[in-house]
């Protein structure tokens, strides 16, 4: 850590961030009116320190859950509806059918409870209400809607019921998205009530599911701070996180909002020391619009982001109690070494990184931006197991996540201070790096491993050797490119242009299926998705296998074309 970095990190204070956390712990931020109140407080606190703020006011399509309950056998069971459930204020009555599933232990697939949707299962659930283990999320709800269920009840894995969202549509729907908008009622119950309802289902009983929902267009405030750099003011590191929360949402995401507030204050005060700019945004519509705020920004500033964003950094759930470790940490491969070094210097911890999930506010993969962080620090697995906690998607691993229990006690002052400094150094060092600190050789290595794994699973049913050759050729060109940077043969401006441009090509091919400037559904995207079917050939009969091979031919063409484009771009600009 150089003297400037140390000086800037030493200026971090908890006065403003902890004050914001304490304030946000006193009011809910679910309805846009309350979210706007939180946004106004962020703006007020920033302006009090002289920070210039622009406040956008997008119109977002949101789904706001109200009350829910399940009535059966003369009893009323407490429930919570997910955002985007259909309103069933008058109740939906039907026979209850139990379809067993396992609660996924890994955060990568915790929202994608899957069952084998056979014709036999479709015949069982058609016209009925299904109950199954899992969060009331797209993976649980959409599959049963598709085969004819009239309602879905998710059994959460503990004593609490977690709020969530059941649409797979990413952000405000467009005309092409609308057919995927959920058309049935959904709710979640806790583990004990779920067991009681399963017993009713096994006796052939019926239930009535009630869900109260408010849905429509809402004007939402969205503050933006743009701190101009002194050498490349048009280029920027993009830091962002969501402000709307379930209930008071201290660990998810008042602590994140507070972290960005302090980073904005400190960097504004030290703006003369920034080479590139830093852009910071607080999002509405995260919880009730499936990342509607960040998606609106991605849509409306897409061409500027494409031209100028050197990286995007998501700030969600830092500073939570017991969150001593940096495991399950999202990062794209090219950012691994850079981020690991930052965490080691600030926290003295080893980072365990993983592929970013199709979650959080990663609304910029379609543009192609190198990305790191989503969820922040978390508690060790051993401690989580000792407490009997199951996997959740935030709050540092605390199961208060997405419940009314996510209150002030979830935040930890010392951990918050440390995590603010982690984010601050990552942003500062990224903004000031002479050469953008992203190593595409690591991404090429990831691609090679992915292709090899897919080929092993495909066997002799499909040949991916052309993909392997294209990856190898790109890797060789990248070796020469980084050697040229090290020797000084490739100048700084050229190197940075290539490193940024490679993101526009290689991020979409690794993280998206749809066209650029559109948004994939909020469902897991496998590595190199255009050839991912190679891993699933065992599941196809002889007839369907031909269709899968056709898809793979087209997908391999897309992949190889992108890899060749990346290689040509390096050779054209860097020689």
UniProtKB/TrEMBL annotation:
Protein name in the entry: M28 family peptidase
Domain Peptidase M28 span(s) in chain numbering: 227-416
Lineage, broadest ranks: Bacteria, Pseudomonadati, Pseudomonadota, Alphaproteobacteria, Hyphomicrobiales
Native organism: Nitratireductor aquimarinus
SUPFAM superfamilies documented for this protein: Zn-dependent exopeptidases
InterPro entries: Peptidase_M28, Peptidase_M28B
């Amino acid at each position: 850590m150089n003297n400037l970095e140390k000086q800037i990190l030493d200026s971090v204070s908890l006065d403003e961030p902890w004050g914001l956390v304490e304030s946000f712990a006193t009011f809910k931020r679910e309805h846009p009116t309350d979210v706007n109140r939180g946004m106004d407080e962020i703006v007020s606190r920033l302006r009090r320190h002289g920070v210039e703020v622009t406040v956008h006011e997008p119109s977002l399509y949101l789904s706001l859950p109200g009350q829910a309950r399940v009535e059966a056998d003369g009893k009323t069971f407490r429930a919570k509806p997910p955002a985007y459930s259909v309103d069933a204020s008058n109740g939906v009555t039907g026979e209850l059918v139990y379809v067993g599933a396992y609660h996924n232990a890994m955060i990568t697939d915790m929202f994608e409870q899957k069952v084998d949707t056979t014709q036999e299962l479709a015949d069982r659930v058609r016209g009925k209400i299904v109950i199954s283990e899992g969060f009331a999320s797209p993976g649980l709800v959409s599959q049963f809607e598709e085969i004819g269920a009239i309602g879905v009840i998710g059994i959460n894995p503990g004593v609490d019921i977690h709020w969530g969202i059941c649409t797979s549509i990413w952000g405000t729907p467009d005309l092409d998205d609308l057919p995927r908008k959920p058309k049935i009622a959904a709710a979640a119950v806790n583990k004990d009530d779920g067991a009681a309802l399963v017993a009713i289902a096994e006796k052939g009983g019926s239930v009535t599911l009630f869900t109260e929902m408010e849905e429509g267009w809402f004007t939402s405030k969205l503050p933006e701070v743009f701190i101009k750099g002194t050498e490349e003011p048009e280029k920027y590191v993009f830091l962002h996180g969501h402000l709307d929360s379930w209930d008071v949402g201290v660990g998810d995401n008042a602590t994140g909002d507070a972290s960005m507030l302090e980073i904005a204050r400190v960097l504004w005060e030290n703006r003369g020391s920034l080479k590139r700019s830093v852009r910071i945004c607080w999002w509405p519509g995260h919880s009730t619009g499936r990342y509607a705020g960040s998606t609106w920004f991605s849509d409306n500033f897409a061409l500027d982001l494409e031209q100028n964003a050197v990286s995007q950094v998501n700030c969600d759930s830092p500073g939570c109690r017991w969150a001593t470790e940096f495991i399950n940490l999202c990062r794209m491969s090219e950012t691994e070494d850079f981020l690991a070094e930052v965490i080691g210097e600030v926290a003295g911890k080893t980072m365990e990184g993983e592929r970013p999930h199709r979650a959080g506010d990663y609304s910029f993969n379609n543009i192609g931006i190198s990305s790191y962080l989503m969820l922040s620090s978390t508690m060790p697995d051993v401690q989580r197991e000792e407490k009997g906690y199951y996997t959740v998607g935030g709050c540092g691993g605390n199961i208060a996540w997405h419940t009314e229990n996510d209150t002030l006690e979830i935040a930890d002052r010392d951990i918050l201070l440390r995590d603010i400094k982690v984010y601050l150094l990552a942003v500062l060092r990224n903004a000031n790096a002479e050469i953008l600190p992203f190593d595409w050789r690591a991404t090429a290595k990831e691609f090679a491993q992915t292709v090899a794994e897919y080929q092993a699973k495909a066997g002799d049913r499909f040949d991916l050797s052309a993909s392997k050759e294209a990856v190898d050729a790109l890797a060789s060109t990248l070796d020469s490119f980084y050697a040229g940077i090290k020797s000084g043969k490739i100048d700084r401006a050229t190197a940075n242009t290539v490193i940024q441009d490679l993101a526009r090509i290689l991020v979409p091919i690794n993280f998206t299926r749809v066209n650029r400037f559109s948004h994939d559904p909020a469902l897991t995207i496998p590595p190199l998705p255009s050839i991912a079917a190679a891993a699933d050939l065992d599941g196809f009969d002889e007839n369907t296998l031909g269709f899968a091979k056709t898809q793979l031919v087209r997908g391999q063409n897309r992949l190889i074309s992108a890899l060749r484009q990346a290689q040509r771009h390096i050779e054209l600009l860097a020689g």
